[in-house]
């Protein structure tokens, strides 16, 4: 069978990139390595010049902009500039590609209908759910777009269940790493405090707010330090409980392994409806570097190996405390690393190709 021409239309802008790397760049690289003709382009390029390909994968921006008459009537100024930046007619481009025989697949990784209130979300919530400042309501367009494309892929069982009713075909496809980004590094012996690692943006503030992990870390505050690329809002919350914090600056994705290498263990707190749709990335990144993990038991990490899943303050405390035992630590580290290094795209590409075959043959 001839190999398909595939296009990945990614959504992140320069300076973002993490979602687009996992959803687009990493699988695109793996497909290219086995001979597929794969091109990466931004969604705006796709919308402005609908390309020709056998399969087109579009990341998250499934909207069709605002009505052209309404846009033309807007007064010049900041509001019109915001509207112009968001005014991508993606639905029209999808239809044009489908009319030429392309199969179009959407991919996304957020529970958009459950954006919480709080730091990092209020502005996004206002835009996505209300359309403030851009002249249309993206969530309405997004849900329509899920039914327009030929199939949808998500890296979360919860998302597949929650949004499946809007799609013709819904597939749960794991987020998988580019293993070249995780070189094997010997871990130096722990000296002094246990380095409890976590990295995240302001949009993880809700994962920490009111979470029982704060009580556990407070109890452990004399023997641990929380380290990583930690947003100011989370760092302030930790310091407010007298929990020591060591913040690191943002790094490029190809250097992120150096941050994880600085952990002794990884933690994955989650909280609320929005976080039920997370993927296994945080656990996986730690296991790739041989770091045991303690994570929230809410279903996100059910497939992961090399750590503990906990649900309350005692669980957090006891799991972290147990990893001071060298034998438990060593066993968890080895199990997690062995599991994680089987999760790359190169040895799991058929998970994606099976989806493509079903969609192309439909």
Low-confidence stretches: 68-72
> Looking at the structure, what is the overall shape?
globular
Mean pLDDT: 91
Strand content: 5-15%
Rg for CA atoms: 22 Å
What pattern of helices and strands is seen along the backbone?
EHEHEHHHEHHEHEEHHEHEHEHHEEHHH
- Give the proportion of residues in helices: 40-55%
Structural category: alpha/beta
What does this structure look like?
With 362 residues, this protein is an alpha/beta fold. Helix content is 41%, strand content 15%. The protein is built from 17 helices and 12 strands. A 6-stranded parallel beta sheet has the order 2-1-3-4-5-6, sandwiched between helices. A 6-stranded parallel beta sheet has the order 9-8-7-10-11-12, with helices on both faces. Strand 1, helix 1 and strand 2 (37-42) form a beta-alpha-beta unit. Helix 10 (213-219) crosses helix 15 (313-322) and helix 14 (281-288) crosses helix 16. The relative contact order is 0.12.
Write a brief caption for the model:
The chain is built from 17 helices and 12 strands. The protein is α/β, with parallel strands linked by helices.
Reconstruct the topology from this structure.
Blueprint (H helix, E strand, L loop, with lengths): L4 E6 L7 H16 L3 E6 H6 L6 E5 L8 H5 L5 H9 L3 H10 L3 E5 L14 H9 L7 H11 L2 E4 L2 H7 L6 E3 L21 E4 L7 H4 L4 H7 L4 E5 L3 H8 L5 E3 L8 H5 L4 E4 L3 H4 L5 H8 L4 E4 L10 E4 L2 H10 L3 H15 L8 H13 L1
Parallel strand pairs: 1-2, 1-3, 3-4, 4-5, 5-6, 7-8, 7-10, 8-9, 10-11, 11-12
Helix pairs in contact: 10-15, 14-16
């Amino acid at each position: 069978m001839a190999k398909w021409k595939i296009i990945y239309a990614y959504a992140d802008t320069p300076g973002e990139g993490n979602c687009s790397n996992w959803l687009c760049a990493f699988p695109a690289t793996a497909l290219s390595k086995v001979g597929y003709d794969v091109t990466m382009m931004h969604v705006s390029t796709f919308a402005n010049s609908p390309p020709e390909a056998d399969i087109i994968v579009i990341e998250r921006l499934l909207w069709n902009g605002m009505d052209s008459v309404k846009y033309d009537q807007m007064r010049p100024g900041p509001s019109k500039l915001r509207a112009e930046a968001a005014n991508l007619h993606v639905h029209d481009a999808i239809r044009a590609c489908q009319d030429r025989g392309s199969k179009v697949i959407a991919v996304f990784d957020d529970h958009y209908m459950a954006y919480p209130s709080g730091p990092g979300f209020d502005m996004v919530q206002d835009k996505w759910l209300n359309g403030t400042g851009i002249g249309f309501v993206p969530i309405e367009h997004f849900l329509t777009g899920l039914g327009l494309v030929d199939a949808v892929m998500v890296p979360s069982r919860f998302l597949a269940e929650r949004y499946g009713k809007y799609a013709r075909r819904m597939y749960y496809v794991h987020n998988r790493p580019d293993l070249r980004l995780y070189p094997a590094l010997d871990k130096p012996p722990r000296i002094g405090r246990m380095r409890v690692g976590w990295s995240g943006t302001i949009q993880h503030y809700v994962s920490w707010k009111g979470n029982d992990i704060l009580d556990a870390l407070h109890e452990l505050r004399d023997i641990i330090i929380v380290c990583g690329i930690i947003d100011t809002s989370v760092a302030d919350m930790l310091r407010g409980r007298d929990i020591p914090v060591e913040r690191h600056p943002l790094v490029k994705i190809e250097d992120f392994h150096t941050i994880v290498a600085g952990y002794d263990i990884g933690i994955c707190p989650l909280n609320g409806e929005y976080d039920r749709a997370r993927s296994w990335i945080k656990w996986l990144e730690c296991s790739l570097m041989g770091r045991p993990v303690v994570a929230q038991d809410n279903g996100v990490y059910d497939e992961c190996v090399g750590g503990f899943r906990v649900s309350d303050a005692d669980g957090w405390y006891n799991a972290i405390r147990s990893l001071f035992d060298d034998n438990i630590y060593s066993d968890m580290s080895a199990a997690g690393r062995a599991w994680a290094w089987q999760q790359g795209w190169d040895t799991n590409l058929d998970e994606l190709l099976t989806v493509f075959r079903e969609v192309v043959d439909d």
